[in-house]
Design a protein that fits this description.
homotetramer, about 210 residues, alpha+beta, 8-stranded mixed sheet, 5 helices
Chain lengths: ~210, ~210, ~210, ~210
């Protein structure tokens, strides 16, 4: 199906990252976090290009053929159609220099929270031990925010509304889009997955306190 | 157990569809969507006949022997007793020309919603990104309805009450029957399963907002 | 560990029933219905004796060694200590002539319901399609009750309080004990398991409507 | 990775306990009780030393390399960094002479309860049959308490606030730390796991009654 395009080869490290991403996608799929072929995932490779899930595939069954390459600006360097939200992945890699993996899922709990907290513009997590799961957090006794932005089918406009929320002090490495789902990122697939798991946990706890 | 009746052979495509249906039934069973041998599933085959689950079997263990053939009007063309609700499947195939698979489950969440929203006659889903999982939906910023009808042990009467709700503009490819469960359909087993998964997700989100 | 006591041999049918019971125990254990080694299960064998789980074993790992024989009055005819609640199993077999399998689990949902509905003395299920999962129920448009009795560490006294609730018209083949869990039975392991699964479903739906 | 330090050999019984602990960690991980590499587990070995999980590992994938030895006072006798909360494990072994295994998880339900009941200083469980899962409890008709203490990043101070709550009459072998999670212990991995499972069950029931 792929034309023999001169896509640059992946390094051995890249290949291991891709395997980790596939394992992560299958695990999250089993948890019901990517219903109805939703969700999308990406990696920043060693040469700066981006490996991202193709549009419309079942993420529970992700394999290498379900991933394609974009250049750092988000232009395809391989045949195929990338996830419609590739622009949000590109934005995160541009703004967060250390991000190497971006994960986006539609867990029911994140979606419910994204709607309930849209008017607040953020969820606030205070005094949770699990905040220590986020890289760089060592003192649990702080307040962290997870931004919540409105949804928009125009990805450029959506990215623009997210832009001022990225990289602020006291903000966790992720955000919610109302009625849509949750994004999280990190220095590696493991870090990003740990962050997403921690966000799911924190959101679940807060929802139980905000019925 | 089967007499050597002259049931027409299935095409290779039909056989693949049947395998997909069986896999889907087992997956949904594992999720607890077909408790106590409930639920029923069908396919429209290439010759227009219908392959449907037999009555009273455990859908978590569905195999080819658990399926039987009906003609397009719903009359058995093979020995055995089809699901009591075969008439609803036949109706969907008659009214929705492109439907090739119909899935009906009794997930607790669909049953709770079916009772809570019976008086409204429908559930309404607004501004959910996951609405894009439904075929033909491209603009998330619309309002979609899932019809809710009262239950009736008389299948003809039940079908008559559903009839005016099928194929309306702004209506999703499925419906709830009060105290009973959810139906969904699509052009293929994959499409129907994606639709059912999306409905389960949307219903779950709405119930969290309507305690 | 077993002395070579003259325990009567099981028939081939009995052995198949025992295998079905073990499979059922493992399945229910995986669902979290028998936390902390709780729950107990039994069969009435072809000679009228009772095969029941031993006390204190992890039901997720049930095997033949975890089962022992009682005579129809509940007296051990094999070395070992039967579940403390064997008396309730014996009572069901005495009062319900067709019961061949009795299943008792501690699912969180049944326990919550047992406490919430103790003062009512019963849970009432109206117009649920899934009521048809119970043997003999053909018209869904009826009202069925599941008795709820207070707990008692004295099994004879507990049995006495259950006695008047067994076998009444309009009563499902099961009951709840407050703060304790749920019992269900049937003509076979499959029937009893289907009944228990249906009760779990119905209780779950009612709890969602009675927060 | 390990230097050839003269760490005392484990007995055959110790090795079996370690295997049981690993199996338990994987099981609890599958249930979602140790999100984002949280949770920690330990054993008291036959020579009085402590085998405890290393810091920051994914407990769903625990193996022998993920465990390290401390002396009875909590000082490492092997290279590596133990869980930050090792001090709480040491305290339990010192105060509860019969404790041989300590399990700590971050289940969402325990975390929600720990915050909701922090002001009460305890959760109270009355008339639950499952209280009999705790060693030494034979009469269900009593009232038991699970202490709830405030969280503190200073482990010595946290231990000091727990100290008066350990080993009191009518208190279960465990406690909650607010916004953090649940500890449980027992004479063996099986006992401690049964206690933790019972606590999770009881907490779940109480939360349903205290929305």
């Amino acid at each position: 199906m792929h034309s023999p395009a001169p896509t640059p080869a992946m390094t051995v490290d890249d290949q291991q990252r891709a395997e980790a991403l596939i394992e992560c996608a299958r695990d999250f799929g089993q948890r019901g976090w990517t219903p109805a072929t939703s969700g999308n995932y990406s990696l920043r490779l060693d040469d700066g290009s981006i490996l991202i899930t193709r549009s419309g595939t079942d993420k529970r069954k992700l394999d290498l053929d379900g991933l394609m390459r974009l250049d750092p600006a988000g232009r395809p360097i391989e045949p195929g159609r990338a996830s419609a939200e590739a622009g949000l992945h590109v934005q995160i890699y541009l703004r967060c220099a250390q991000a190497r993996a971006v994960l986006h899922v539609h867990s029911p709990i994140a979606t419910v929270a994204s709607r309930r907290f849209e008017a607040h513009g953020a969820m606030r997590f205070v005094n949770y031990e699990l905040l220590k799961a986020f890289e760089g957090v060592s003192d649990h006794d702080l307040e962290f925010e997870l931004p919540v932005v409105g949804n928009d089918q125009n990805i450029d406009r959506l990215a623009a509304s997210i832009e001022p929320r990225l990289g602020q002090a006291g903000t966790l490495p992720g955000y919610l889009i109302a009625g849509h789902g949750v994004y999280a990122w990190g220095r590696s697939v493991d870090d990003a997955a740990r962050h997403l798991e921690a966000l799911d946990f924190l959101i679940q706890c807060e929802l139980s306190d905000n019925r």
